[in-house]
Design goal:
The protein starts with a strand and ends with a helix. It has 2 domains: about 5-185, 3-Layer(aba) Sandwich (Rossmann fold), CATH 3.40.50; about 195-355, Rossmann fold (3-Layer(aba) Sandwich), CATH 3.40.50.2000. The strands form 2 sheets. Strands 3-2-1-4-5-6-7 form a 7-stranded parallel sheet, with helices on both faces. Helices cover about 40% and strands about 15% of the residues. It is α/β, with parallel strands linked by helices. It contains 14 helices and 13 strands. The longest helix is centred in the first third of the chain and has 29 residues, at about 80-110. Helix 1 (about 15-30) links the parallel strand 1 and strand 2 (about 35-40).
């Protein structure tokens, strides 16, 4: 089976890490070979795009192309300049893809096309329907987009062979826009981070110039209003044990005005540091005691379960109307909840976590095998078997048929 992956992101954040592990899970479990995989990723207009994740670097056929993007996702910064920039870029990209991408498809002849984000949904109108195309949605759809965009999105999603959402929140946001959204939770492999936590934690502290005696609490993600870095700084300022607790903001700017506000605010907070982004997050998770999310809703993105599988405690915001079914099994055993944007409640919960001696050693370090099986089950192509199992089953079936004919045994 030949699979063409198309992605807007090959950097250090969630979508890139997810597609990296998605491909890794298929390769590790012998579902496809490297030569069966092709990768097309977004080309920047005025600079070279560097691939960060290792599994993506190892793909033999990879190419950067112009991709149309539609920022209909919650948290996107909408300004007059951004709107104009995306409009110009998309006009050029759609014309480019209509001719060049279709030409590439004739050469690659994929059995399956995998779109790695809701932001590249316009491709569903460009890709011929004869190719089975799935769209893997990792973002929360912004229901406040205009009526015309809603109608176009609804028609585009009808052209998809399968629609996959990473959690129930994604599926819920698409009600009225898409039917039959299958939920497939993200792939994770934190084995290396767990090993480093056990063996080299002190060395990692020194590498980042941190004191191993301090408790570390981190907020990870692009610095933009929806992520709540300003609230996180308020937490650092209000926390009772400033001398023994270090708060870390890990991420790059996703909004220039907000980044400036956060940077200025952080200068006045002695127990907080902004570390920027890291290409290798495996060296960050082992030094963290607690990962905090600071949105004003319950977020279940990559860092939640990366932290959990890496051995960190994870503290999540929740409102009364939020559905906690997906994380119920993890509550108070690696994942804790606090009242969203409530400094008093998050301070108390954080104190309880840091004062307790929670063990992570009984937790799994990932889910790649189960993930690959569930992905294939959704597609209905090979069921839940690996390539080796299928070959063995084929051999068994041949022997059975021959025995029935009296040709063997």
């Amino acid at each position: 089976m030949k699979i063409l992956f198309i992605t807007h992101d090959v950097g250090i954040y969630g979508a890139a890490r997810s597609i990296n592990l998605h491909i890794k899970s298929l390769l590790r479990n012998d579902i496809v070979k490297n030569e069966d995989i092709s990768l097309l990723y977004a080309k920047a207009f005025f600079r070279k795009t560097a691939i960060k994740p290792d599994s993506l670097k190892e793909i033999k056929y990879k190419k950067s192309i112009l991709l149309p993007t539609s920022m209909i996702i919650k948290g996107h910064e909408k300004t007059a300049f951004n709107t104009f920039k995306y409009m110009v870029k998309n006009i050029v990209s759609i014309i480019y893809c209509f001719f060049y991408l279709r030409l590439l498809l004739k050469h690659l002849k994929p059995d399956l096309i995998h779109l790695n984000s809701l932001t590249i949904w316009p491709l569903l109108f460009i890709l011929p329907k004869k190719y089975k195309t799935i769209i893997h949605i990792r973002e929360i759809y912004n229901e406040n987009v205009n009526i015309m965009t809603k109608k176009l999105l609804r028609k585009a999603l009808l052209r998809a062979y399968k629609i996959i959402g990473i959690d129930e929140g994604v599926k819920k946001a698409l009600r009225g826009i898409a039917k039959d959204v299958e939920v497939l939770r993200n792939p994770f492999d934190m084995e290396n981070a767990r090993m480093l936590r056990e063996t080299d934690r002190k060395t990692l502290y020194e590498r980042i110039n941190l004191s191993p005696e301090l408790k570390t609490v981190a907020l990870i993600g692009r610095i933009q209003p929806i992520k709540g870095q300003s609230f996180f700084i308020d937490l650092a300022e209000a926390y009772y044990d400033k001398e023994n607790t270090l708060f870390l903001v890990i991420g790059t700017s996703g909004n220039s005005n907000y980044y400036s506000l956060v940077s200025e605010k952080a200068k006045k907070c002695a127990n907080l540091r902004i570390l920027g982004g890291f290409d290798e997050m495996d060296v960050i998770f082992p030094i963290l005691d607690v990962i905090v999310r600071c949105e004003d809703f319950l977020p279940l993105g990559r860092t939640v379960f990366e932290g959990y599988y890496a051995g960190c405690s994870v503290l999540l915001p929740v409102k009364e109307e939020d559905d906690i079914t997906e994380i119920r099994q993890f509550l108070n055993d690696g994942i804790w909840l606090y009242k969203a944007r409530n400094i008093t409640d998050i301070s108390e919960k954080l104190k309880q976590i840091l004062d307790s001696n929670n063990s992570f050693r009984n937790r799994p370090s990932g889910n790649l095998k189960r993930y690959s099986q569930e992905f294939m089950k959704i597609l209905g192509i090979y069921g839940v078997t690996t390539k080796k199992q299928r070959e063995g089953q084929d051999e068994h079936n041949d022997i059975t048929k021959n025995q029935a004919r009296g040709l063997t045994g």
